[in-house]
Design goal:
Blueprint lengths: L2 H9 L16 H6 L5 H19 L4 H30 L2 H13 L3 H19 L1 H19 L3 H14 L9 H10 L3 H28 L20 H19 L4 H19 L11 H30 L4 H19 L1 H11 L5 H13 L9 H12 L6 H25 L2
Length: about 425
C-alpha cells in the first residue's frame, strides 16, 4: 500500500479498505454501533424489495417498469461515478487544499468564514447544479472544519441547505428546472429573470436560519480561529490528476454535456491515476450500492403509486384555484411531496396534473420541489449524496435537529420564495 493510501486511511478515521456499504470509509459512529443497520439501509432494502415486487407481480406493467428503469439509468450512472470521483478526490487531498485556502481567506474571523461558506455554496449550486455542490463541496466543508478544529455539522448543513435552496436561478442549477423551463418555453436568461427574486429570498432565509440554528450555537470565545498553514499533498502527481478530474467534470457540466457522461469521464481519469500511483486504495465498495438500490426502488414504487391514486392525490392537493392561493398551494404541495417521495418524482407528478400554460403554479411547484426537500434525508438526490459524504467522513448529524430545522427552513423559504414570485409577476 502506498504512503498516500496509508495517510488517507489515518486521516479519515480508519484503514484503507474499511469501506461501508454506501461506498465510503467506515464512519466512527458505525464502528461504535457495531453491526446495527443504519435506518437508510433498511429503507433502501424495503424500497428495493417493494419496487421489484411491483414489477414482478404486474402491479406496475412490464412496459412501464422497463421505461422507468431506462429513465433512471442515466441518473444511476451519474450517482455511481460522481461518488467514486468524490471519494478518490478526497483521498488525494484536494478537498483539504481547498478548505485551507478558504480558511486563510477568512483571516481568523468566524463571521467572515460563515459569509464565505454561504457565498461559495450558493455560487457553486447556481452555476454547476445542486448535485455537484453535494458531491464536491461537502468534503471541502468537512475538511475545513477538521483543519480549523470547528464543529463539522454547521459547515455540513451549510452545504446541504444551500445545495437545495440556491438551485432556482438557472435551468442548469437543478434537473427539475430543465423540465420546467422546457414546459413553459423560457430561454435561460428569461428563466433567470423570472426566478431571480425567489432565489434571493430563498438564500436570504437560508442564511438567517443557518446562522441562528447551526452556526451561532457553535461559536467559541471571541468567535475567532487560527488560520492553518497551506496544505501540502502527499502525492503531488495524484493530487494534480484529481484536480484535473474535478475541473473536467465542471467543464463538462458548463458545456452542457450530460451529467452522467461528464462524471464518468472525470471518474475514469482519476481512477486511472490511482491505478498507477495507489492501486491499493481502490475497492469495489467505493461504488455506492445502497444509493443505487434506493433510487431504483424509489422510482419503481412511485410509478406504481401513481397508477393507484397518487396522481389523483396530487391533483387534489394542488386544487383548481389560481392566483396567490393556488401558487402557495402548489409550492406547499411540491415541498410536502418532495419530503415524502423525493423531489424528482414529486415534480413530475405535479407537472402532470397542472394545465398547460399555468406558469405561476408551475413555477411555484418548482420552488416547492427545489427549496422544500430539506426535512428528510431522501427528499432530493443532493441530500442523499450529502448524507453519504457525511457518513463516509464519520460525521454524525443529529437526526431530530436535522428534521426540525429542515422542516422550518422548508416552510419559511418556500413561503418567502413563492411570495417573491408573486410580487414580481
Amino acid at each position: 500500500m502506498s504512503p498516500l493510501a496509508r495517510r488517507a486511511g489515518r486521516r479519515r478515521g480508519g484503514r484503507i479498505g474499511a469501506v461501508d456499504p454506501a461506498g465510503g470509509p467506515s464512519a466512527r459512529t458505525e464502528r461504535v454501533s457495531g453491526c446495527r443497520a443504519h435506518p437508510l439501509d433498511v429503507v433502501a432494502v424495503v424500497l428495493a424489495v417493494a419496487g421489484a415486487g411491483c414489477a414482478l407481480t404486474g402491479l406496475l406493467p412490464r412496459a412501464e417498469a422497463v421505461a422507468t428503469v431506462q429513465r433512471v439509468l442515466p441518473l444511476l450512472l451519474f450517482l455511481a461515478t460522481v461518488v467514486v470521483l468524490a471519494e478518490l478526490t478526497a483521498v488525494a487531498g484536494v478537498f483539504d487544499a481547498v478548505a485551507t485556502r478558504l480558511a486563510i481567506a477568512a483571516r481568523g474571523r468566524y463571521a467572515v468564514l460563515f459569509g464565505l461558506c454561504v457565498g461559495f455554496a450558493s455560487l457553486t449550486t447556481v452555476v454547476l447544479n445542486l448535485d455537484t455542490t453535494a458531491v464536491l463541496l461537502t468534503p471541502v466543508m468537512l475538511a475545513l472544519a477538521r483543519r480549523l478544529g470547528l464543529p463539522a455539522v454547521p459547515l455540513a448543513m451549510t452545504t446541504v441547505w444551500l445545495a437545495n435552496t440556491a438551485s432556482l436561478l438557472l435551468p442548469v442549477s437543478n434537473l427539475t428546472n430543465l423540465l420546467a423551463a422546457d414546459r413553459i418555453d423560457l430561454a435561460p436568461l428569461s428563466y433567470a429573470a423570472r426566478m431571480a427574486a425567489p432565489q434571493l429570498a430563498a438564500v436570504a432565509v437560508t442564511a438567517v436560519l443557518l446562522w441562528f440554528c447551526w452556526w451561532r450555537p457553535g461559536r467559541r470565545g471571541g468567535g475567532g480561529f487560527r488560520s492553518p498553514p497551506r496544505h501540502v499533498p502527499a502525492d503531488r502527481w495524484l493530487y494534480r490528476t484529481a484536480v484535473a478530474g474535478c475541473l473536467l467534470f465542471v467543464a463538462g457540466i458548463l458545456a452542457g454535456v450530460p451529467i452522467g457522461l461528464a462524471s464518468t469521464v472525470a471518474a475514469a481519469l482519476v481512477l486511472a491515476g490511482f491505478l498507477v500511483r495507489s492501486r491499493g486504495t481502490l475497492r469495489p465498495a467505493l461504488v455506492p450500492w445502497r444509493l443505487l438500490v434506493f433510487v431504483t426502488g424509489l422510482f419503481l414504487v412511485v410509478q406504481t403509486l401513481g397508477r393507484y391514486g397518487l396522481d389523483n392525490l396530487v391533483g387534489w392537493l394542488l386544487g383548481p384555484d389560481g392566483g396567490a392561493l393556488g401558487a402557495l398551494r402548489a409550492g406547499g404541495t411540491g415541498a410536502l411531496l418532495s419530503n415524502l417521495v423525493n423531489n424528482l418524482p414529486a415534480y413530475v407528478a405535479g407537472e402532470a396534473v397542472l394545465p398547460v400554460g399555468d406558469e405561476p403554479r408551475l413555477l411555484a411547484l418548482l420552488i416547492g420541489t427545489n427549496v422544500g426537500p430539506l426535512a428528510t434525508p431522501w427528499a432530493s438526490l443532493a441530500t442523499l449524496i450529502w448524507y453519504e459524504r457525511c457518513r463516509a467522513a464519520g460525521v454524525t448529524v443529529p437526526t431530530a435537529r436535522f428534521l426540525a430545522t429542515g422542516a422550518l427552513l422548508a416552510v419559511t423559504a418556500t413561503l418567502a420564495a413563492v411570495a417573491a414570485l408573486l410580487l414580481t409577476s
